[in-house]
Write a structure and sequence with these properties.
Shape: globular
Distance between the termini: 46 Å
Largest sheet: 3 strands, antiparallel
Radius of gyration: 16 Å
Mean pLDDT: 90
Oligomer: single chain
Number of strands: 3
Order of helices and strands: HHHEHHEEHH
Strand order of the largest sheet: 1-3-2
Helix content: 40-55%
Structural class: alpha+beta
Low-confidence stretches: none
């Protein structure tokens, strides 16, 4: 018998992007490559440790690329892979839903 939970497409998708930080990192990379520090500034509540762990997982799963430039101090840049870019419509839909929900429920985006 096949374990439905294990083979559920939504479960699979959530295992790739379902943490608190992954969708935010992916969303901010939709506009193009960002240096590590620039990307981290876009998500002010993420710790250095969590940022590093999250981008490593996204890279391992083939959703982003990490490019290291041989300069001092080290320069690291992240960008979406083709696979990561395929999530654009989902990420933009989530963003739009949040915008509409804030408006419809009189919620401040900064709450």
């Amino acid at each position: 018998m096949i374990n439905k939970k294990k083979h559920c497409p939504l479960n699979y998708t959530m295992s790739l992007i379902g943490t608190k930080w992954k969708p935010l990192i992916l969303f901010h990379l939709l506009e193009g490559a960002l240096r590590s520090g620039e990307l981290q500034k876009q998500i002010p509540d993420i710790s250095n440790k969590m940022f590093t762990q999250t981008v490593r997982e996204l890279e391992k799963d083939g959703l982003i690329y990490r490019k290291v430039f041989p300069v001092a101090p080290p320069k690291v840049e992240y960008q979406l892979s083709e696979r990561g870019n395929s999530l654009e419509s989902i990420l933009r839909s989530l963003d739009q839903w949040g915008l509409e929900d804030f408006s419809n429920n009189d919620i401040s985006a900064n709450s």
